[in-house]
Amino acid sequence: MGIDGVFPQTVFRIGSVAITTTVLTTWVVVAVLSLLALVVHRRFRVWEPDTWQLTIEYVVEYVENLIADTVGRVLPEAVSYLTTMICFIAMANLLSMLPGVGSIGQWRLQGEIRVFIPFFQTPTSNLNTTLALSLVSLGSTHYYGFRQRGLKAQLMSLLEPVAFMLPLNIIGQLSRLFSMALRLFGNVIAGEIISATMFMLVPALAPLPLTLLSMITGVLQALVFTVLTIAFIADAMQLDT
């Protein structure tokens, strides 16, 4: 795969709408998580749980501890949402690195060069995806602030400490949105470009160590994004962090 394969490519079209590699991968991640949730719901057992159930319970407990370490107490109303967030981002970052998944694709001519375009690509290497995730994070921040403090108090928080700070507070909210989106996008796309470059230079040695490094980075980026969301929710709810 060349450098061009790092960026979203059109897989097929539905009418005039182009379905790119990142969109296709996002659909697969959503489908896998939805199917997993359905199976877990139907097969959940209180006594003698299976190994897969213990694994899921460990992930949920980890998120609860993460919230408690960040804000001082567990927020039961946000555990499901934050668990879904960290699982989605982590799985989105790791899916294209699974053995065999990266080999699913097609060869295309770009000029006089044949390049391999994988069908599955890390969704967070697309700025549109990271912006959407940041919008969800920002929306959840105000949602939980509204539930905790009421709509009027949440809106009035934009006027704190004095009314003429409203433009600056709005800019601050937008800066959160773009900083989270660009941080996640920048880290993921930089890792993929480095991996693609090294693969072109030393294809015999690069794949395994770089894949392991990318997997670790993918999980860490999911963790960082979730921790920032927790901190912003705590701030909106006026909890001590």
Give an overview in words.
With 241 residues, this protein is mainly alpha-helical. The chain has seven helices and four strands. The strands form two sheets. It has a two-stranded antiparallel sheet. Strands 3-4 form a two-stranded antiparallel ribbon. A hairpin with a 2-residue loop joins strand 1 (10-14) and strand 2 (17-20). Helix 2 crosses helix 7 (207-236), helix 4 (127-149) runs parallel beside helix 7 and helix 6 (166-201) runs antiparallel to helix 7 (207-236). The longest helix has 36 residues, at 166-201. The protein is globular. The termini are far apart. The relative contact order is 0.15. The model has no long low-confidence stretch (mean pLDDT 80).
State the end-to-end distance: 44 Å
Give the total of beta strands. Answer: 4
The SSE string, one letter per element, is EEHHHEEHHHH
Rg (C-alpha, Å) = 21 Å
Taking the sheet with the most strands, its summary is:
2 strands, antiparallel
Helical run tally: 7
- Structural class by SSE content: mainly alpha
Q: How would you describe the shape?
A: globular
Kindly estimate the percentage of residues that lie in beta strands according to DSSP.
5-15%
Task: Characterize this entry briefly.
This protein is mainly α and 241 residues long. Helix content is 66%, strand content 9%. The protein is globular, with a radius of gyration of 21 Å.
